[in-house]
Amino acid sequence: MSKGKSIFTIALxxxxxxxxxIMDVTGFGKNxxxxxxxxxxxxxxxxxxxxxxxxxxxxxxxxxDMEDTINKLTQRVEGYSTEAQVYKExxxxxxxxxxxxxxxxxxxxxxGRPGTLYFLRQYASDGTPNYSVIGYDExxxxxxxxxxxxxxxQADGKVVxxxxxxxxAQAGAINNNMGNSEIVVHLxxxxxxxxxxxxxxxxxxxxxETIAIYYxxxxxSVPRVNSEITEGSAQITGMKDFETAEKIxxxxxxxxxxxxxxxxxxxxxxxxxxxxxxxxxxxxxxxxFIVVVIFMLVIYYVLGLTSAIAxxxxxxxxxxxxxxxxxxxxxxxxxxxxxxxxxxxxANVIIFARLREELRTGxxxxxxxxxxxxxxxxxxxxxxxxxxIAAAVLWIMGSGSIKGFAQTLALGICLSMFTAVVITKLxxxxxxxxxxTNPKFYGVAKExxxxxxxxxxxxxxxxxxxxxxxxxxxxxxxxxxxGDRGHSLNFSLEFLGGTQTNVPFDKDYSLEExxxxxxxxxxxxxxxxNVSTTKIQGSNEVIFKTKTLNAQQREAMSEYFEAxxxxxxxxxxxxxxxxxxxxxxxxxxxxAVVVACVCMLIYIWFRFKDIRFGASSVLALTHxxxxxxxxxxxxxxxxxxxxxxxxxxxxxxxxxATIVIFDRIRENLKExxxxxxxxxxVNDSISATLSRSIFTSLTTFIxxxxxxxxxxxxxxxxxxxxxxxxxxxxxxxxxLAGAMWFVFRQKFVKKEx
Length: 753
Prior knowledge:
The protein is of the alpha+beta class. Helix content is 58%, strand content 14%.
């Protein structure tokens, strides 16, 4: 690359980084569209709409019916935000909290009043129509009305199906008989619903009748039956556009709830954490970024400069794409972005380590860059693709905040690969083109000191096993029997539910005032540090969410507010609330994580042509998760929504480090002579990648420490176990993964071995 072209390339990348950064701040046009402040924020950062429904009927619905209803509502409101929360309040109420939305009326109109959905036969037993056309709308679509009441139609046996017989409804497109694309609504029925629908459509088809879908006093659709439906699924055709199909599909889904609900109240609630959380997290990100850049410059010289530019571009692009893809950002999400800056260094360090090794052999800088990228590419791709597979599984199978976490993770992985493989390479070639070709500006690797990592493998295995066993003992035998604990882990409101106390004050307190004046006192009253405060906008009412309170604690809280803030005790309302992470969501998350680990195992098996590499990787990941879990048990750190994100971050981080070592083992196996000891190959591979493992861990650790120092309490609860996980992941990659593969290689010998 010529000198002029090199200067132009570097200038272009720097200018693009600056311009993108300015656009992140100011946005596009006069309205500032696309700026960072336009990013969808979660309920904890921006507030949103809170809607409470109450079950309709003389009998209180069963816990199972309420759980089913919550699960279906959760699926429905995820269309607004993956961070929306749905939980039970009292015995017969359900609250929905949707972040980033402030028009409760529009949500209510679109969401509708969850109730019973009916599929109605066209004619009654006496031959009279159950419904008929009364006119046409402005688009020429027929308008219908009932000729009999619903009770009469039900008594006549002409209700084909009800909403609970429908398993799912989705808008989609098919190719019709003419070969043209047609928008439809796909219906899937339960086993019982399939049997009912098969019989009903057989009769309706024979008589050329319609079957109406009726919900909440309105006709959703009145399709004519064109054939007997025998496969347990059907399609509604004749949609004018996809939006119409989606609206009908969502109405059918919401109409399939187990419990009929009506709106009890709706409010616009303020942010749970406020601007202070965003401010401190941004400060943490800036400080961490500066420290990481300084570290890279000190250790890697010119290489560090190129990584700093690439990291800056990575950061501004990530903010821009989060906005572009409409990802909802919560406080853990901000922490995840800041953390990803540290993890993005990983690919650069792998390349830089390889480059310095090549310089040690006497190659020129230009030649070393080519060879380094060639040798490092497989490790970078394998490590990132493995984590990307996990993110894809969690995105598809997960729900709620797990889906949001997976989106952010996938975006970070793709961007980090782009900046490392494309941008950093361009910058390095440009540096050479500008005449910076002296190896001393890049650093020449010293011959790695050979360490016998495998010689003490039994000690490493024993130490790890002891920590894991002690953690399990602490969880199931100690914590569960300590009076003020009673649980294996310190589960927060998200997992256990608790008590919601609505307090109407006579003045408007800011969120900062509430946290400074009251939260510590409330924590002392309830004996728990997990107290959440939410303001209801347009009023002086504040919602305090705490662990489940007994009658004495509820009374103590009421007396506290009356004595200190003049609140009328009679106006204070306290209700039990369920967990915001339902049992179904917990089960889905566990299944998703297991499937992700299996997929990672299969990929590593495929890439390394040896299942022992995959088994060792998964065992190392399991070790990291269990040791971090042991820390949660010993320190009794709060286990909330960030717990899952923390564990998944550790898994994604650890697998990268392990694959880098395995990639070097695979390479050295191919180059080794017939008399080379397997033990020496493993030890040499770990030794050669040791600096990479330590430096990457250190840069990531710096970012997390910055989060812990500057972050609010909920961020500290995320950062502290993450620091433990980073140390643990580094330890397992260096001391355990290779050793476990070595043991498997000896115990389970393949023919070609």
